[in-house]
Design goal:
By secondary structure, this protein is an alpha+beta fold. It has one domain (10-128): Zincin-like, CATH 3.30.2010. The protein has helices spanning 10-27, 73-76, 81-101, 109-128, and strands at 34-40, 56-61, 66-72. It is globular and about 40 Å long. The structure holds zinc ion (ZN).
Length: 132
């Protein structure tokens, strides 16, 4: 049971997340997916071990082209816009790679995270690079 956070700028943080996710979903042409966003003060579940640094957890019903990203507001509230952008891209890559999860061996979360982070960083780097 985690500590209950009082978060004074909740509405502003939710708006900042929705603006960033809408921009990246458009940029990555993910309009064919339905992505819902949930905002919470505490994260529960398998990825909550590292609760202080967990900003978001993604669950995808990829066969129905639907995903939900649960945002942990106290963690997001400490982030710069650039750091939030990195997390947004990371979570959207999780959505795109979700069909592969069923084929991963149990306990291979680190491999999934590594692959997700590498693709996310490549997208962010490509976005910053000059267009030819
Ligand atoms: Zn991840």
């Amino acid at each position: 049971m985690g500590k209950k956070y009082e978060y004074p700028h909740r509405a502003a943080e939710e708006a900042r997340i929705l603006e960033a996710t809408a921009r990246w979903e458009h940029e990555l042409e993910m309009g064919w997916l339905s992505i819902g966003h949930i905002f919470v003060d505490q994260v529960r579940g398998e990825e909550s071990d590292d609760i202080e640094s967990t900003a978001a957890v993604t669950y995808a019903s990829w066969e129905y082209r639907h995903a939900t990203i649960t945002w942990y507001l106290p963690a997001v509230g400490t982030m710069t816009d650039e750091a939030l952008n990195d997390v947004v891209v990371h979570e959207l890559v999780h959505v795109l790679l979700a069909p592969l999860r069923d084929h991963l061996k149990p306990g291979s979360i680190k491999q999934e995270e590594f692959a997700t982070e590498c693709v996310a960083r490549a997208i962010v780097a490509a976005r910053k690079a000059p267009r030819v």
